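Hi Y.,

Following your request, here is the sequence exactly as I used it, all 152 residues.
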Amino acid sequence: MSAAQVPEIPRPISAGAEMAALRRFFRDCSWNGTIVEGGMGPGTPQMTAEGRGVHTPIQDGLWIVGDYEQDQFLLDGTFVLKWQLHWVVGWDPDAGEYRGTHADNYGHAGVMSGRLDGGILTFETMTDDPVRQRMTWNLTDPAVMRWRTRSP
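Below is the corresponding structure, written out as tokens. Let me know if you'd prefer a different format.
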């Protein structure tokens, strides 16, 4: 078969403007904060948290992988648990929106739908899974990243 007879072979896509806009939200980071009483379910105590996240672009920048850990402590300093999350996020041109997949050490896994509105990035669970979630990154002040997760 000659080169002229070979049918056009689909090629991988390249990262575009959507990924350039997304990258600023996923920088290596560390954080500390408070988990409010009842924040992990009815009757759970208030806790402090210390966490970190590391991000790696994959597939020529088409996706970003984030690996996160958060240590949680009672107010007296007693260690309670280590939470871990693996996250893959990028632009899905077929869906015309951002998509993220997650898996954590509680056994939760899922696909989320995302949207970017200026300095605010929001991802929400796509189905009626038993655990529904909304995650918001706020970069309206470029010097300060604010992140929040909650059940809608």
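The longest helix spans residues 17-23.

Thanks again,
Q.
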